[in-house]
Write a structure and sequence with these properties.
290 residues, globular, 75% helix, mainly alpha, single chain
Length: 290
């Protein structure tokens, strides 16, 4: 009984004692801001043509009007929408995360998903889901009340946990679906991917045609995704599995020409790092990142 009570107190202390890993959390949030900035710059020219056929109307309720207001602005003038968005992202990048910037960032990513829905993909969905869990990642403003400070720390640390669980859930669902798919277990899924001319990099045509190679790649994918769910929680395996994950997504980026999904998943790994990991970097690199 005493041991159980000690374990409970240790867990509670972890959640309310302090803001856990503030340096890497800030780096994670700034990386998401930078990714969104780059996505807007790239998508801006295409959005003019898309908005001609993608009309957005405001809902009847005032809450709906508020939620979809940026999307409606894009429908009226996409240049103003993107221009204001870029200014906000720059300001948020320069400031420490606070409830206003994290909340507005989620609002922005949600509306970006709506505006670019005709050509949105899984990366856009992952981005605004991560942005949602970023809302409580604010260590400012500080409160004089001890109770409010404890609540703020608990929200902050729970945000980190839910972000990590969100990423783990992505791998769990993907890996489990593949494990239960005969197409993936046999390697046929890789063969199918090699015939997707709009995705598969033509430079690799003929290099992955061997059925044994396809079978190996298929099971490497399944094993990595399911093992990530477990190994990411242990200190001895956390860094190695993240390193393998970076290589895994870079491979997808190169072979399947899916840079946006690979990038958002690699960025998501930052939330699993600790400030002690960050401190191992050279001082100049740390100053550049933060």
């Amino acid at each position: 009984m005493v041991k159980q009570r000690t374990n409970v107190l240790t867990i509670v202390d972890y959640w309310v004692r302090d803001f856990n890993n503030p340096a890497t959390v800030r780096l994670f949030f700034r990386a998401l801001l930078l990714l969104t900035f780059v996505k807007i710059v790239i998508l801006w020219p295409f959005s003019h043509n898309v908005m001609i056929h993608h009309n957005i109307t405001l809902p009847a309720s005032w809450i709906g009007k508020l939620v979809f207001a940026p999307s409606f602005l894009a429908n009226v003038n996409v240049d103003i929408f993107y221009g204001v968005s870029l200014v906000f992202l720059i300001i948020a990048f320069l400031l420490r995360p606070n409830y206003l910037t994290t909340g507005l960032f989620f609002w922005l990513t949600f509306n970006l998903y709506i505006v670019n829905l005709p050509f949105a993909n899984g990366a856009d969905l992952v981005l605004f889901m991560l942005a949602f869990w970023c809302i409580p990642l604010a260590s400012t403003p500080t409160f004089k009340s001890e109770t409010l400070t404890i609540v703020q720390k608990a929200l902050y640390n729970s945000g980190i946990t839910f972000l990590q669980l969100q990423i783990v859930f992505i791998y769990l669902v993907s890996g489990w679906d593949k494990l239960n798919s005969e197409t993936w277990r046999s390697g046929e899924a890789i063969d199918y991917i090699t015939h997707l001319s709009n995705l598969f990099n033509p430079a690799f045509v003929g290099m992955i045609d061997d059925p044994s190679v396809q079978l190996i790649l298929s099971w490497i994918t399944i094993i990595f995704e399911l093992s990530f769910v477990i190994l990411i929680w242990f200190d001895k395996t956390r860094i190695p599995v993240l390193a393998i994950g970076v290589l895994f997504h870079l491979f997808i980026w190169i072979v399947m020409t899916l840079p946006d999904f690979a990038t958002v998943m690699i960025i998501s790994y930052i939330i699993f790092l600790k400030d002690s990991d960050y401190q191992r970097l050279p001082p100049r690199l740390r100053q550049l990142l933060l």
